[in-house]
């Protein structure tokens, strides 16, 4: 049968493209004889170009390309019943490192319907896969190291808290004892945060679980009678980045400590409620008690370290602090509104 007049031209063009290609390519007949191989293929797999003509794929090199599965897939591709796309193989050669390869193959329509030809492209992904495994190993090692660091941090925080409590028992000054107790509560809140971070995935902290655990820790160390005073958490399902959760947790710690110290004098009963709600980038954190309410004039407590901590943290979060009468009790709300900040920026620019 005479070939279509363009068949010779198409075959010659394909041959020229394969030979000059910068990628490892093989031009094969339907019976898997090598019609041509790119110079890059020969260099990559250390095959003498002069030994290639007339050989089958399985005969290249020292026979390392004799892979029954690959041969079967190429035969199916030539018949049109299969298609090789990103098929992975291991190329094993004597005294050399096994190479991981990805092969793609397709038939070429060069006008000669009696002779199917195949174009086989080979990509060496050995180094890429090795880098990926190394990265996975590093991530795994980092996770193990982080777990060990978290364990040591937890132990250290417990030791510090214990030392603070022992010191509080020994000092004579009521003021010094109060400061040591406050320091103890703050250390315990950091310990609760550390524990929550250690169990969080993806670097985000679920605030409802964190606030609950934090308040349980504060209650255990500051509330002698749980039937008289309690702390509740009504936060939504928000999750924030770890650094934001640190600031929010410290704010809650300071506000809860302040309410426990001042809102329920004597044997007064009551509840402190921590609430957090968010919508998009807007959020509101509130700590509300049903205690004696805000004091005025000379009866108002002086601003201390806790107040300074809350103000600094709220500013860092670009939040606004609002103190209001909860009737009964006191509500302290810290809110962040993207729209408000935008209007402030625009008014400042004006």
From TrEMBL:
Residue span, Histidine kinase/HSP90-like ATPase domain: 243-340
Superkingdom, taxonomy of origin: Bacteria
InterPro entries xrefs: HATPase_C_sf, HATPase_dom, PAS-like_dom_sf, PAS_4, Sig_transdc_His_kin_sub2_dim/P
Coiled-coil regions listed in the entry: none
Catalytic reactions of this protein: ATP + protein L-histidine = ADP + protein N-phospho-L-histidine
GO molecular function, one term: ATP binding
Keyword Glycosyltransferase among UniProt keywords: no
EC number: 2.7.13.3
Keywords, in A-Z order: ATP-binding, Kinase, Nucleotide-binding, Phosphoprotein, Transferase
Root EC class: transferase
Keyword Cell inner membrane: no
Protein name: histidine kinase
Species this protein is from: Mesorhizobium alhagi CCNWXJ12-2
């Amino acid at each position: 049968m005479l070939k279509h007049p363009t068949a010779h031209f198409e075959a010659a063009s394909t041959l020229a493209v394969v030979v000059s290609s910068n990628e490892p390519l093989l031009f094969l007949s339907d019976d898997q004889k090598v019609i041509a191989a790119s110079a890059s293929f020969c260099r990559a797999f250390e095959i003498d170009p002069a030994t290639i003509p007339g050989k089958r794929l399985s005969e290249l090199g020292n026979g390392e390309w004799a892979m029954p599965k690959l041969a079967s897939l190429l035969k199916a591709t030539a018949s049109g019943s299969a298609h090789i796309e990103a098929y992975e193989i291991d190329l094993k050669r004597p005294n050399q490192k096994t190479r991981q390869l990805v092969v793609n193959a397709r038939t070429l329509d060069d006008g000669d319907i009696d002779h199917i030809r195949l174009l086989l492209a080979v990509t060496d992904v050995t180094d890429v896969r090795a880098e990926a495994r190394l990265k996975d190993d590093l991530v795994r090692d980092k996770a193990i190291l982080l777990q060990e660091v978290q364990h040591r941090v937890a132990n250290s925080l417990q030791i510090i808290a214990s030392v603070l409590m022992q010191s509080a028992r020994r000092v004579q000054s009521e003021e010094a004892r109060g400061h040591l107790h406050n320091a103890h509560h703050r250390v315990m809140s950091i310990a609760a945060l550390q524990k929550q971070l250690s169990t969080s995935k993806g670097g985000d902290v679920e605030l409802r679980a964190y606030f609950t655990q934090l308040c349980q820790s504060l209650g255990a160390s500051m509330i002698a009678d749980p039937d008289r005073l309690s702390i509740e958490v009504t936060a939504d399902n928000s999750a924030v980045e770890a650094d934001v959760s640190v600031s929010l947790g410290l704010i809650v710690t300071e506000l809860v400590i302040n309410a426990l110290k001042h809102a329920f004098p004597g044997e007064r009963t009551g509840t402190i409620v921590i609430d957090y709600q968010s919508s998009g980038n807007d959020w509101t954190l509130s700590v509300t008690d049903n205690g004696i309410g805000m004091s005025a004039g000379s009866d108002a407590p002086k601003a201390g370290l806790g107040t300074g901590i809350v103000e600094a943290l709220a500013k860092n979060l670009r939040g606004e602090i609002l103190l209001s009468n909860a009737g009964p009790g006191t509500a302290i709300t810290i809110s962040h509104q993207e729209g408000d900040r935008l209007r402030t920026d625009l008014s400042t620019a004006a």
